[in-house]
Specification:
The complex is a heterodimer. Chain A is α/β, with parallel strands linked by helices. Chain A has 22 helices and 16 strands. In chain A, strand 10 and strand 11 form a beta hairpin. Classes of the chains: A alpha/beta, B alpha+beta. Chain A: Keywords: 4Fe-4S, Iron, Iron-sulfur, Metal-binding.
Chain lengths: 524, 190
Amino acid sequence: MTTRIWVPCDSAALAVGADEVAAAIAAEAARRGLDIRVLRNGTRGLLWLETLVEVEMPAGRTGFGPVDAADVPALFDAGWSREHPLALGLVEEIPYLARQQRLTFARCGITEPHSLADYLAHGGYRGLRNALALAPADIVATVTASGLRGRGGAAFPTGIKWNTVLKAPGTEKYIVCNADEGDSGTFADRIIMESDPFVLIEGMTIAGIAVGAARGYIYVRSEYPHAIARLEGAIALARHHGYLGANLLGAGPAFDLEVRKGAGAYICGEETALLESVEGKRGIVRAKPPLPALAGLFGKPTVINNVLSLATVPVILDKGAAYYQDYGMGRSRGTLPVQLAGNIRHGGLIELAFGVTLREILYGYGGGSASGRPIKAVQVGGPLGAYLPESQWDTPLDYEAFASLWAVLGHGGIVVHDDRADMAKLARYAMEFCAIESCGKCTPCRIGSTRGVEVIDKIRAGTGTPQAQVQHVVLLRDLCDTMLGGSLCAMGGMTPYPVLSALNHFPQDFGQAGIEQHGSQRAA
Amino acid sequence: MFHATPAPAAAASTTSTTSATAATAATAAANAAVDGILAELFARLGNRQDQLLPVLHGLQDSAGYIPPDSVPAIAQHFNLSRAEVHGVITFYHYFRTEAPPRCVVQVCRAEACQSMGADALLEHAEQALGCGLHGRSADGTFGLEPVYCLGHCASSPALTINEAVFARVTPARFDALIAEVMATGTREAA
């Protein structure tokens, strides 16, 4: 009987040699005359174990990892038994995975991402079938009742956004998927697009039916060529089998999709800049109002949602609003795909109901730092997110709890730094990043970021008189205040989060002036 | 197509030496190739402005870069000003306006990679390739560029060599990858 062996084809696995591992397994099996079929699954998200090879055994899929091509002959010698040092036991029972609550990522790593048949066999397109039997307003009501909030950062309720588009006048409407995930520490969108692309296509199709849009665009960053290729392949398959096109499943309304490739501009993750880019212009932020829901792509009513929001819609339409609502805490309902990265032993994707603490993520899942040194600071929510010191790690992952700390949960990306991190250098980096990536439309962001780099350079040089040094810190706070209050979008408006949190929590890294300023701020 | 306004260099070359004539011939061939690429893209994608980025991507994918000489033809096709097209090309980091070196190395500079030694890796790359960031090696083989997040933050530091991504890159692994490029020619994107 043929033994099936899975080797991931997610680009995180490819980047550490998965193709070589797959080729070595096929060659070694042929050399030994064994009847083995190598399948290419997506990733489970246990990224420190990549390349994670899974072998079909009577008890279930058994894991081995991290496997290098050079390990393959020895794995065959050991008969892929539990005795081999790389053996991990049943994959589903690895605690990191077993303790997760996977709704959006339920199929990732299990199925072959390029197989529509595999998608259907694992519950795919049940949500769309249910949606086709409902009135548009009822689909929107279901999404609203589920409590799903946008995963892009602002956390706006998805159902309310859809309802605005549904009620907007006009017959030409659009669904736009923001797949410009460019935040350091985030890779959940990439995993969905590469490991389960049909779930995103299904979610967008349901959105189209719900608001009366016949066309959708997925705007993917150019840094993700694998994701683009995978989506294009999946769209072609879905169209061929009637899941996209003139009549959905032969009887429904029309809906079709295309992928648009970005071109390396971080600002295009901002929704209005993204719309400008799809329209063929520079990605410059639009002033709001009007909201994109009323005047979005090509001036028409547009649903613009993040990958994770759209990819979560199928499970809600499949299992119902109440099923999803039951997960989470407070006003943060459902699950949050946490992406644990940076200097961490067990980095990867962790989908959990809202409410778990940061400390549990860092130590219970992450296993502490990769370097073995103490963890110093944790940046949550991308390059515009705050740095959290240890005193804040017992905060539950919840939008409101983070807001009360003057921090953001954003897209759920967590980047860990050990005690060697220089927080003043990282604060400078945040300003430099803003200066490079600012779209230039508003002055606080365009000029403020450049001045921010200069003033932090002066603080770090430490060459001024003590009074001058303190003045630089005062000026930096002033500048941050202007950027916070005066910027047109989150690019300039949130750059102060990493800068000020670094200054407030780690004043020693800014020299004596930082400490004195910090003291006087506290006294004030 | 885009030779509607002849470049000054081409006009001056009529009185130049044989090698310059050969260079002009090569330029003419390259221009003709770009014309062909654009004609195909224009026919396939149409002239609605939202196809501007797809045209620019298509041109860069085929020609390796977006020759500044091609701007007038693109502008005319989309009924835009040259300034508007130039503005779009220069706004986006991904688009390049000169031919890339044979091997482009992009080192991720985002925070997650920094936390795992990307700065030291970049320094190592600069030494090994003999050029700084945004620079080219002396023989023109290698170019070193920054990139902000390849989505491999949990296996950092990461870099690309001609668009093939490599994660958990140590200086030793970097040297091995570059040696492979030197030995086998350009490493193709995976």
